[in-house]
Write a structure and sequence with these properties.
Number of helices: 4
Largest sheet: 2 strands, antiparallel
Shape: elongated
Helix content: 40-55%
Number of strands: 2
Structural class: mainly alpha
Strand order of the largest sheet: 1-2
Distance between the termini: 53 Å
Radius of gyration: 23 Å
Length: 142
């Protein structure tokens, strides 16, 4: 006996009360999907939690922070080639593991020590000019 066909295609129907051509409706649907994925990334990857704000300004503030974080991630992908194509979660994790130690040397000044390098956060810091290209990171992890 033959089972269900695996060649079947799934279809769905978009309906609208707007008088638009099918291409415009499909574009609107795809744009909506893009926005939903952005909000999903803000909640899961960036860590924006449910908005507990009771004023419009509070809601706009939380959304602004989330969109600024997404913009920084997009700039990171553009400027740091190892970040190109990486998921937001991996970029965020790489930067969260980076550690800055500040050691005061009395009258001699202050020493800043970066540690917990991996190839991704090192490339990101170089792309943004935080560490120079010639700087060698002794504790780089693979």
């Amino acid at each position: 006996m033959k089972g269900p066909s695996t060649d079947a295609k799934d279809f769905f129907c978009l309906t609208s009360n707007l008088d638009l051509n099918p291409y415009a409706i499909r574009k609107m649907y795809r744009d909506k999907d893009c926005v939903e994925k952005l909000f999903s990334s803000m909640k899961s990857d960036i860590g924006i939690r449910p908005i507990r704000a009771w004023t419009d300004d509070g809601v706009y503030g939380v959304l602004l922070i989330g969109f600024l974080a997404q913009a920084l991630i997009a700039m990171t992908r553009l400027l740091a080639k190892p970040a190109d194509g990486k998921a937001t979660k991996f970029i965020s994790d790489a930067m969260q593991k980076l550690t800055l130690t500040v050691r005061r040397k009395g009258m001699e000044g202050t020493e800043f020590i970066l540690s917990n390098f991996n190839s991704l956060n090192q490339a990101i810091l170089r792309a943004f000019g935080v560490i120079p290209e010639v700087f060698r990171c002794e504790n780089t992890r693979k």
